[in-house]
Amino acid sequence: MIPQKKTADIHELFRVKSGCVFGDLMSVLTIMKGIRLAYNKDIKKEKERIFDAINTVNMILSLLPSMIQETIANKEAMYKATSTGFINATDWTDYLTEKGLPFRDTYQVTGNIIQCCEETNQTLETLSLAEYKEEHVIFE
Question: What is the pTM of this model?
Fold first, then answer.
């Protein structure tokens, strides 16, 4: 039906089901937050959410080994996807911050590097160390 679709249904269903488990958690936390030390009838509703979460997790865990075994990863496509769109720009900002550069400056330096990449049709991985050092001497 959707020929361009690459993600298997089971992967998407697992993602949805994990959201349901988080929803159950939030329900339980909300129900329990106002309960005093003594028994309250609210606890009956909390158990429904806990059992639903346990059943969902058990179902996912029972299918997970088969899913992993049948999943074929296209490493080349994955690498290509991570090297475009500057997905790792945050890593450069963290790197500069760890080197002692104030965040305000790391933000500007990283922005300049991305602009350089766009102007020269490069990625963060293809820039040379010399090009990084042109933006800031802190790069090693």
Answer: 0.53
